[in-house]
Design goal:
Keywords: ATP-binding, Kinase, Nucleotide-binding, Transferase. By secondary structure, this protein is of the alpha+beta class. Helix content is 43%, strand content 17%. Strand 6 and strand 7 form a beta hairpin.
Length: 596
């Protein structure tokens, strides 16, 4: 028989059904290979095709299997993210937004298994509950949210692998009532940001160039801690002083008072999480808080934190503040650590706090000067920092060409983080290419610093801003675009700090000492709203840690936020020599420190 005769007798419907079944059988094998072999291949087209052709159950079953057998939580997290994409596609654009709460109690048993590290059992519980949420689009979208919540648990566990690089020694604690004072610079990210964010940082590898900076001549971030006789925790935090000072005071006397440590907007959440991550307090213990404090420390603790930067500034405030608080608590509790340990400890804290940050902020604020941080595409997650050598006098030159402009708009990076992670897990080709470009641009930026080449540095900065917009569309408000357009002829490069969306704009001017000129230009530009211009200095000293006695001097008593505090009569604190900042002990005075 001829091929034409064969075709006439072929059951074409059955043939198409057979071909479709074969295609999706092969697709299931592709799903396994891509996920288990860590391939940067987008599965979203395959997922959409499976849903359109009615093969979603087979795909879901395969993804369940991959998540259950994955050797590390990173692979399992990506598999759960793919399941969320399947459920989102099944909703066909209805049912509301994917971003939202994932706190329905029906999913709690599955979440609890994942939190305990029982991934296979947790995935089984998720699949069991999922079957009850397939009836209509609104339920499918809510199920997708809960899968993304489960994914975050596994990301947290992957990032927790960084804890093995936290080294803590024992020291003689300061006497009860004596303060440990830590003051930190802010940071600007000059290139590579987003490549430090989990899971990108341990699946792709990251590189970020950061500069530690003084803002208007001051270290804007700090914390102090001391032991007190009463077995309780006294928490005081002050922030947003550019917008008007906001002070929060809390007293925790029971473990129940610390239970909201994982809710970022809860009062004192960062300070509470710091006590847990430094292991001063154990929430799971059967012993009450009072007993724990008396047995381990001979009393309680008082800790104060402050920032003179507004919320959502983009200058790394929360992560640097976390590092300052943990450094102060460690020393007050009679423990010693170093900068490398603090960098990884902040990664741990931010996962506990559920803000899910990367490592660039604490690298920028805890390590002095100009540096590049790197992480490899592997677990455990380890961050390595290289100081970038620059020509003599270049930091002073940079000071004259850098300016900060507060845009008057604030944002929470977490709002952008959800979309970025969703696109990364989908391995959209543009996002994968952009991640490659972020790392390569960071290496070129480091070379521009080594050469002292301001025009090349400006090119890297401008390219970096375009990469940020690719990674997080919508991070450039209209008023900021107007501001940047007005400044374009006068700058080598410019970018919003951090994730963008608001906060501070930093610019590298073509001419030195241009603050007044920039002020005049922006004053004539319509539609900008309230803005302010601030000077920048490269902080080459790093953060400082001081033992300041029971009645320390007021912060800023030298007129420079403590940065130029006299070292006459100061002695190096014991056991903290590995810290890159200044470790000092100051004599008592009659005035307590202020938060301003």
């Amino acid at each position: 028989m001829s091929w034409e005769q064969l075709l006439m007798r072929l059951d074409q419907e059955a043939e198409l059904v057979s071909r479709r079944a074969l295609f999706f059988h092969q697709a299931q094998g592709k799903l396994r290979r891509v996920l288990l072999e860590h391939r940067d291949c987008s599965l979203l087209p395959l997922i959409r095709s499976a849903v359109n052709e009615g093969y979603q159950e087979a795909v879901l079953s395969t993804l369940d299997q991959v998540a259950s057998v994955a050797a590390d939580p990173g692979v399992a997290a990506r598999a759960l993210a793919c399941i969320a994409d399947v459920l989102g596609c099944m909703a066909k654009g209805d049912g509301g937004l994917r971003s939202g709460p994932a706190a329905n109690q029906e999913w709690a048993p599955a979440f609890q298994q994942l939190e305990r590290g029982n991934i296979a059992e947790g995935v089984k519980e998720l699949a069991k509950e999922r079957r009850e949420w397939l009836g209509r689009p609104a339920l499918l979208v809510r199920a997708a949210r809960h899968y993304e919540g489960a994914e975050q648990i596994l990301i947290r566990q992957a990032v927790m692998s960084a804890c093995r690089f936290i080294s803590v020694g024992q020291e003689e604690p300061p006497p009860i009532g004596h303060w440990v004072l830590v003051e930190c610079p802010a940071r600007i990210d000059v290139s590579g940001g987003w490549s430090d964010t989990p899971p990108i940082t341990y699946e792709h590898g990251g590189a970020v160039v950061d500069v530690a900076i003084l803002v208007d001549g001051r270290r804007p971030i700090g914390a102090r801690a001391r032991r007190i006789a009463e077995p309780e925790l006294r928490l005081v935090s002050a922030s947003g002083m550019l917008e008007g000072e906001v002070v929060l005071e809390l007293v925790c006397q029971d473990l129940e008072d610390l239970q909201d440590y994982c809710q970022p907007h809860a009062p004192g959440a960062l300070l509470k999480a710091a006590f847990i991550c430094t292991q001063i307090v154990t929430l799971a213990s059967q012993k009450p808080l009072r007993t724990q404090l008396l047995e381990c420390s001979g009393g309680g603790f008082e800790v104060h934190s402050w920032s003179s930067l507004p919320h959502g500034s983009g200058l790394g405030t929360s992560s640097i503040l976390a590092g300052a608080v943990m450094a102060a608590l460690y020393r007050a509790a009679g423990k010693s650590t170093n900068a490398e340990s603090l960098i990884h400890a902040v990664l741990h804290l931010e996962q506990v706090l559920t803000t899910g940050g990367g490592w660039q902020d604490q690298v920028g604020g805890l390590v002095p000067g100009i540096k590049i941080g790197r992480s490899k595409a592997q677990l455990p997650l380890k961050v390595e920092v290289e100081q970038i050598p620059v020509l003599e006098g270049f930091p002073q030159t940079l000071n004259k060409h850098l300016l900060l402009i507060y845009t008057g708009k604030t944002r929470l990076a977490r709002n952008m983080l959800q979309d970025v992670l969703r696109n990364w897990y989908a391995r959209l080709p543009a996002i994968v290419q952009n991640a490659d470009a972020l790392v390569s641009n960071a290496e070129q930026c480091a070379q521009a610093f080594r050469q002292g080449n301001l025009p090349l540095l400006g090119e890297c900065l401008t390219r970096y801003w375009q990469q940020k917009k690719c990674m997080a569309p919508g991070c450039e408000p209209l008023a900021v675009r107007r501001m940047m357009d007005a400044l374009q002829p006068y700058v080598y490069g410019q970018s919003l700090a951090g994730a963008g969306g608001g906060g501070f704009l930093y610019i590298l001017t073509k001419e030195p000492s241009q603050k007044d000129v920039i002020q005049q230009i922006l004053a004539k530009t319509e539609g900008l709203g309230n803005f302010s211009i601030h000077t920048v200095e490269v902080d080459t000293a790093g953060f400082s840690l001081q033992l300041v006695g029971s009645n320390p001097k007021a912060r800023g008593d030298t007129g420079s936020g403590g940065h130029n505090r006299s070292r006459e009569g100061l002695q190096q604190g014991p056991g903290l020599c590995a810290l890159p900042g200044n470790v000092q002990t100051a004599a008592d005075s009659s005035q307590p420190p202020t938060l301003a």
